[in-house]
Structure formats: structure tokens, C-alpha cells
Design brief:
Elements lengths: L2 E2 L5 H10 L4 E2 L17 H9 L4 E3 L14 H14 L5 E3 L13 H13 L7
Length: 127
Amino acid sequence: MLVDCAHTGHRTSMDAIEASSAPVIISHANAYVVQDNARNISDELIKAIAANGGVVGTVGCPVFLTWKGQPTLDQFIDDIAYKADLVRIDCVGIGIDYYLGQHPVEDDAAAMARYDQLVAAGHWRPA
């Protein structure tokens, strides 16, 4: 069993780290310093996860990486590099997360229709 604080607040995450006898992870969360989204996490929490032996996974959700449309691969890497420099690379992972259009949450035909709509609206790019 693994304690994952991806959907907990700052205080709950810090409490979990303190209470756990095993490493705690945040499977998908980006650094607030890199992108000032309230859902992203503080340096204090990233450091606490690393000190506990855990991992923080970078997530590709666009608003967690940029406020300006579709993020670039460089912006995704910027979050990984920032966390690696802050703590150490073995405490950083890739935590893409699930979304409505991902199998088996939604069947392939519905996912493709959603994908086509997002591309047409300019939210995603085929590349």
C-alpha cells in the first residue's frame, strides 16, 4: 500500500508525511514556483516528500504548466528540472494522471470525438 497525497491539501499532506512510517508520494502535482496555479504545490511540500523518501510526479495538465494555452514539452521539462534541482532527481517522477478521454474511463470512439473537439477549439494540438 502506498500513501498518495495527490488530492490532499498542504496541511493534510504534511500530516501524512509525519504520520507515515513509509515514504509518501504525490503521484501528480507540479511546482507552484514554476506555475502559480493554486493546485500546484509548495517547495516546502516538495522538500518534505523528498526528505521522507517519496516522489512527486509532474503532471501534463495544461493549466498546471501554463496559463497560455497548450504547454510545450519544454514547460513540462521545466517543472521536472525545477523539482530535481530543488531536491534530487530520484524524488521526481512523471505522473500524467487520468482524464475523461482515457481508456477505460471512456470508450475509444467517444475519446476520439472529444480529442477532435479539443483540437478544433485550439486547446490541444495534434503534434
